[in-house]
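User: Now give one protein:

AI:
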Amino acid sequence: NPVDWAIRPAFERPLAVRRDPASGLALAVMSPVEDCFAVATPHQEEAHYSTYLSLFGRDVKQGERAAARARLALLESPDERALVDLYGAYVKQG
């Protein structure tokens, strides 16, 4: 495994952001709290941009239907407030 994962403190929302400082572009990956129990992403300026949402948080039995929502957004130079507002609008959509 080329990634040395570490467990970090809990955050309020399953929202991950990866930025490209040269262009100002940012990708935000998000999911409602009830659909996502963990986010795995590199810290700050690590060279890789892998980001994973851990959805469901339970076993899904054969034949059982399960659904989870997630969104990927491409943004230009968002600040923290813009990201929080984007997430809030997303989860209100239901």
User: Anything to note?
Assistant: The chain has one helix and five strands. The helical segments are 80-92. The beta strands are 15-19, 25-30, 36-40, 52-55, 71-76.
